[in-house]
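Lay summary

Proteins are chains of building blocks that fold into shapes. Our project writes down both the chain and a compact code for its shape. Here are two examples, one after the other.
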Amino acid sequence: MNQEQEFNIDAKSKHYVLATSEYIGTKNFKYLIRSELRGNGKVTLFLLGIPDPIVVYAGNTNRAQDSVVKSLYQSAVDSVARFIGENEWVEGATYYGEYLIDGTFEITDKKPQWEDGEWGQKI
């Protein structure tokens, strides 16, 4: 099973761990990164959706799949860190992100159409 990776983030004068894993849609194929910002007993969830062509990209270029995944993880970490540094946010809430053409995630508290609750950890 896919192992989560942990990254350290500081925000609101507190220390957090961002635990990040790959997930897939189990009903309609979707790929996403699920990040849990853990701190002070509350977990803030970030579900970051990635368009299907990004997944296909790894199979159609000379770039190794783990290299693509690593860059997506780094983009998730950078985007979450930027979001919590620039916005008012609530510990324990759920936020959603859409992968953009510039390699970052646009994060919001509005639930996107693709989030149907049918997803599970990538095996």
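And here is the second example, written the same way.
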Amino acid sequence: MPQMWQPKKPASIWQFLRQDFEEELSIPQDIEGNDGLADNFRPLQKGGRLIGRVIFTVSVLIFLALFTGACRHAPLALPEPEKATQTFDADEKIIMKAITRVLKDHGFNPFQVEADRGRLETDYVVQGDWRTKVVATIKKISRKENEVTLSVITEEKSFSRWQLRKIMGKDQYDKLFGEIEMQIYREWSKRE
């Protein structure tokens, strides 16, 4: 019977390559008789050094991203202060005097008046952990009509900074506009 070909024990590819290196490069032997360079080299295998390095690099990058993100204080989106608008049939100067008088009666002092821009702003009035200021703008609509926009900005102190709080409602703004309207009539009566 013809003899069949029997496979030999498979040789690892590293042993095959190592023989070629030893012959061509004639690597010097260590004191113990091992090749220093050839024994330290490990080919890239599944689960070898390459995957370990990739995992380490990715984990370091994730750590750095989380660390820098945690240290940075992103500014919070500040809510827009409340505003209310009403139209008056009066001159800008009369309206400005009326608003100034009403705000003085409520305890807001001093004022930053920009008459050319039709803007009035008070300083903050601080009471405990709360502070409030008023910003009023006057915009001319027609020859006799002016639009007044009031914004009452109230902030509460929490920890070391002030945070905007919305506490004024439509009723409070209507009451404030009513006081301004009454003061406009008083200013007219003073002129006559």
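What can we say about the second shape? The CA atoms of residues 62 and 158 lie 33 Å apart.
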